Amino acid sequence: MISVEEALEKILSYVDVLGHEKKPVLNCLGQVLAEDVYSTIDIPPLDNSAMDGYAVRAEDTRGASRSSPRELMVVGEIAAGSIPREEVKSGTAIRIMTGAPLPKGADAVVQFEDTDEANRKLSQGSLSQIGIFCQVENGFNVRYKGEDIAARELVLKKGKTLRPSEIGVLASVGRATAAVIRRPIVAVLATGDELIGADQPLAPGKIHDSNSYTIAAEILRYGGIPRILGIGRDLIPALTEKINEGLNADMLITSGGVSLGDYDVVKDVLKERGEIALWTICMKPGKPSAFGIIKNGEKKVAHLGLPGNPVSSMITFEQFARPAILKMLGKKTLVKPSIQAIIEGNVKNTDGRRMFARVMVTKRGGQYRARLTGPQGSGILTSMTKANGLAVIPENTKGVMRGDIVKVQMLDWSEDELLEE
User: How many Å apart are CA 74 and CA 210, to the nearest integer?
Assistant: First the structure.
């Protein structure tokens, strides 16, 4: 057996960042930018108003207050998207909408709430004059040309993960498409004669295939494109045929067939078609895992063989497949965030392997606390639905006792679950 760290290092050494693709910016969400993006325009393109109000000369508001308003003549109105024709001269103001270009002569904007506009509309019905209730300084409520982005400025660097804010920036500089690291296609194959599809009636001795769905969902969650191949039977010819279907993908993930049983034949196919880089890892659950390369002509496809038990499959995916997918995507952070928490139950570790215990983390009294989700059998998939973290019990310990501090690898950061109790 090799350590979790050694296994991860070896797996990551076999995968590389993928090539790039050009696509519509909205479809790039979550992907890594493969180019530097420079702006060809200023944003905003012109000095403009940050408020609905009146464009004025700041000096005309000196000493203004509600008890002593400064009265200015209204000489025009500017809507957003229009170009001002009038000029603000001493003693005058122009009614202006948010985003509208600042007219010549104006250097500040007084919002409607700081004028007597409402009263004048009620009493006079017209706005030939306006009373200003506050003194403002030069630049008040003005957004200046290029204050967000200047022409020829580098706005987004290559390697940046595109969030909604970056998508908006791309659109704001007139980029309808972007070059991003493409998403890896990951083929998913569940193996075992006992498996049947989720849509089939359950027969004696059979179980529904859940691994294909959980693994595919994990691939989607972390940015890959899953390709479900179905179920591979426990015979080398049948399994080889199924595996061949997945060799045009960037990675193949199988579940089951990598243990020591008579019908665990995935490792045999690996030996025949390529090389096994590792087999069995010092972890619980997840010990019977394998990784290697399957040859497809000149192409080599990374293959990760996960255990068949559903919890083991999910946990080994988190430790190894997830970082590999993120590396292929060009992401820089490959590990889950971890916290220190007080464990609220005893956890035994009897066989010298690193244990990943399913826990629910909450926060009480300013301290994270972790409680076991219940029985920790590797076939109890519902234990994962109750968990938002994995308590890491080191391989060189006999376990932990209630009240001990443990490292917890967070699976999710749900605000509802982490609220102070």
Answer: 71
Does residue 171 share a domain with residue 32? Answer: yes
Q: 358 and 268 in one domain? A: no
- The C-alpha angle with vertex 158 and arms to 154 and 161, in degrees rounded to 5, equals 110
> Which residue range forms the structural domain that includes residue 198?
4-17+183-328
Backbone angle region of 286, left / alpha / beta, with phi > 0 → left and psi within -120 to 50 → alpha: left
Q: 49 near 109, Cβ under 8 Å?
A: yes
Do 177 and 31 belong together in one domain? yes
Q: pTM for the complete prediction? A: 0.89
d(C-alpha 250, C-alpha 326), whole Å? 13
pLDDT in tens, the chain (421 residues): 899 999 999 999 999 999 999 999 999 999 999 999 999 999 999 999 999 999 999 999 999 999 999 999 999 999 999 999 999 999 999 999 999 999 999 999 999 999 999 988 877 767 899 999 999 999 999 999 999 999 999 999 999 999 999 999 999 999 999 999 999 999 999 998 899 999 999 989 999 999 999 999 999 999 999 999 999 887 888 888 888 899 999 999 999 876 655 445 677 777 777 788 888 999 999 998 989 999 888 888 999 999 999 999 999 999 999 999 999 999 999 999 999 999 999 999 988 999 999 999 999 988 999 999 999 999 999 999 999 999 999 999 999 999 999 999 999 876 565 655 5
Point out the domain boundary residue: 328, 362, 378: 328
